[in-house]
Design goal:
The chain is built from 14 helices and five strands. By secondary structure, the chain is of the alpha+beta class. The chain has a five-stranded antiparallel sheet.
Length: about 350
């Protein structure tokens, strides 16, 4: 009877502890290792206050969540804010709690980075990207090589050989990464560096260009849209990286036989942004952009007179308006990528 009582008591304790959900987690190899770690009531309580098991579509994911949001700025300010609200351990465990086979790769942490422009209230249209520790490390090392003095005050988290998946380490790294990104955007040289731009859009842009190369424009467009919204929060409306990405988005929306539903929206925005652009390097995209919009307007049955008038004005200035590169070709000349031209 005494043995049965203890066993029942332990079962009830474990059942209660598994319902505890907090904003912290600890890395677990699999369910068997969790059960081994819960041999004592003290260990059971410690682990349960650090662990979150999130069930989605038959899989169990290890998730760390930020306990609180970053504070809003004063009422009259608008502040660019980087926040890591959660991190996930991948590869995720299978539905029965067992670890995925070793062929799936080693476990690693994915940090979700939210980019917002907060004012009196939270940004209603935040954007986000997912990055690993190696992305942040590559950014830090690139900036430290080119601008060592500007990074003297930055404390970057070091690599660790053990305990990569503890809630404490993930929380500390998330806070350090937020401060690191805040520092970058506060220093113009760091913000405008190729290293920061690569961090912000590199992976997504490569994936989108690969999809364009495979003629899967409908999958590439959402990636490019997210990249544009992200860059548009950080850089000026008519900065090179923003306009280049906007033109790439227009090209992706219009190169299919049937234009993307958002094609006109992005084309109109690109035309507005190009008004009064003085950067000669970017002006090489203007004629191909006008030609692309002219064809799109024709497909949609819209009035083309204003676009034709703009092209004629450019022709009178001695600028070649016929027989030039397509918009995709002009973009590729400025920023060669994997997409077919």
């Amino acid at each position: 009877m005494y043995f049965v009582f203890l066993k029942t008591k332990k079962f009830l304790l474990l059942s209660r502890l598994h319902t505890v959900v907090v904003g912290r987690r600890v890395g677990m190899e699999n369910r068997e290792s969790i059960e081994e770690d819960l041999d004592s009531a003290t260990e059971a309580f410690d682990q349960s206050t650090l662990s979150i098991k999130h069930q989605t579509k038959g899989t169990v994911q290890d998730i760390w969540q930020r306990p609180t949001r970053r504070p809003l700025p004063p009422p009259d300010d608008v502040v660019l804010c980087f926040e890591i609200p959660l991190a996930r351990i991948l590869p995720a465990a299978s539905g029965d709690g067992q670890s995925l086979p070793s062929s799936a790769g080693k476990k690693y942490v994915i940090y979700e980075v939210n980019i917002r422009k907060d004012g009196p209230g939270p940004d209603p249209y935040p954007t986000s990207v997912e990055r690993r520790y190696t992305h942040f490390l590559r950014l830090y090392e690139g900036l430290r090589k080119d601008y060592p003095i500007l990074l003297q005050t930055v404390s970057f988290p070091k690599k660790v050989l053990m305990g990569n998946f503890t809630a404490e380490l993930i929380g500390e790294r998330s806070a350090a990464f937020e401060c690191f990104l805040d520092h970058i955007v506060s220093v113009p040289l760091l913000r405008d560096s190729v290293h920061f731009l690569e961090f912000l859009q590199g992976d997504e842009l490569r994936n989108a260009c690969q999809l364009l190369d495979e003629r899967r424009n409908e999958l590439a467009v959402p990636l490019l849209e997210n990249c544009f919204r992200l860059l548009n929060k950080i850089f000026l409306d008519k900065s090179k990286c923003v306009l280049l990405l906007l033109c790439r988005l227009v090209a992706a929306c219009t190169t299919s036989p049937i234009p993307h539903p958002s094609a006109e929206q992005w084309a109109e925005l690109a035309l507005r942004r190009y008004e009064h652009v003085c950067d000669t390097e970017l002006l090489v995209l203007y004629i191909p952009l006008l030609q692309t919009c002219l064809h799109l307007w024709w497909q949609r049955g819209r009035d083309r007179s204003l676009l034709e008038e703009r092209l004629n004005e450019m022709g009178k200035k001695g600028i070649k308006i016929k027989g030039g590169p397509t918009l995709a070709q002009a973009i590729h000349a400025l920023d060669p990528r994997a997409e077919t031209i």
